[in-house]
Amino acid sequence: MIENPHTLPEQFPEKAETLAQLASADPAFAELARDYDALSAEIYRGETNLEPMDDFRLENLKKKRLSLLDDIAERLAAA
User: Fold this and answer.
1) CB 77 within 8 A of CB 29
2) Which 8-state DSSP code applies to residue 51?
3) Do 23 and 29 meet the contact criterion of CB atoms below 8 Å apart?
4) What span, in angstroms and rounded, lies between the C-alpha atoms of 15 and 55?
5) Is residue 1 over pLDDT 60?
6) Is the dihedral of CA 46, 38, 3, 66 positive or negative?
7) In sequence order, which residues have a C-beta less than 8 Å from that of residue 19 and are 6 or more positions away?
């Protein structure tokens, strides 16, 4: 099943305002958010064959995205 790119506001709809505030106030958080968005876009391109990739690479990208999502969730919980 091919999914659309995951966005942080979709992942944390109740924290959309906090996401925006952290992204503008904390450069490290903004970088995490950019990295997450870039990985989501790359995964989407791989899943839709816009940028064909093998399953191993795709799974590794998904694991990296999940790790970033965990880091972002921790920062949101602390905010």
Assistant:
1) no
2) S
3) yes
4) 32
5) no
6) positive
7) 8, 9, 12, 33, 76
